[in-house]
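Quick illustration, no need to memorize.
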Amino acid sequence: MNKMKKILLISLSCAIFLLAPFTTYASEAESITKESVELSVSESLLRNTNIKYNTLSLSFSNGKANCSASITGYTFVTSVKITMNLYKKNGSNWDKVDSWESSSNSNYLYLSGSAAASAGTYKLVGVFTANGEEITKEVEQSN
């Protein structure tokens, strides 16, 4: 009987020793899963729900500021709009130089415009709208 107790005690000890690491790993896996879920939720909240892509560009050539913007909405988007405002830095202020606007009853739009540009720092502000969702981007560049 004493021998039987020893065998049972050794078997039970081995079983506990072998199962202990699985408990730790299961706990860590549960923690990682919770973090992953929280991260996925946070990222999805940051994603634009209607605007898939948008671009804004400002360049200079031959005394002109060349401005362009494009927007691509997801396939369900039925209305897009772009507004571009060009500003020139004047001390600590920004003076409006020109503006352009266009809209479309589709999910894609491209808009371009140009304005006379003397030496200085310019800022192009683009407002992109798709099915009512709005994003604003800025590009600043010296001529």
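Residues 1-47 form one domain.
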